Amino acid sequence: MLAAARERWPRAEFRQAEAEDLPFPDKSLHGYRADKAFHVLREPARAVTEARRVLRPGGRIVLLGQDWDAIMIDSADPVLRRAEAGRFLVAVPFFVASATA
Questions:
Q1: 62 DSSP β-pair partners
Q2: pLDDT per residue over 11-47, tens digit each?
Q3: This prediction's pTM
Q4: Which helix (H) or strand (E) covers residue 10, if one does?
Q5: CA distance 71 to 100
Q6: What is the rounded distance in angstroms from the CA atom of residue 53 to the CA atom of residue 46?
């Protein structure tokens, strides 16, 4: 995977590391993304702590998984959050939403 990434983006830097021990200085990254990884980590909480350590102030953490039974849309903008949720509910007829008041 790293070889393919380096071939596709030769000017970018790619590193392999453990999620719980990232090879970056404190507050050095603008963003952190983990795609379908946290469910296999031994210490996911430690990995989140490490991600927060390497993020600059205002940086973003994006964690993606494959929980097809749930959906969460996190946005500081409530109008956007509702619009995206509504769009998803219309596009996916098998999705069932339940809420407790």
A1: 33
A2: 988 888 888 999 999 999 998 888 888 888 888 899 9
A3: 0.58
A4: none
A5: 15
A6: 10
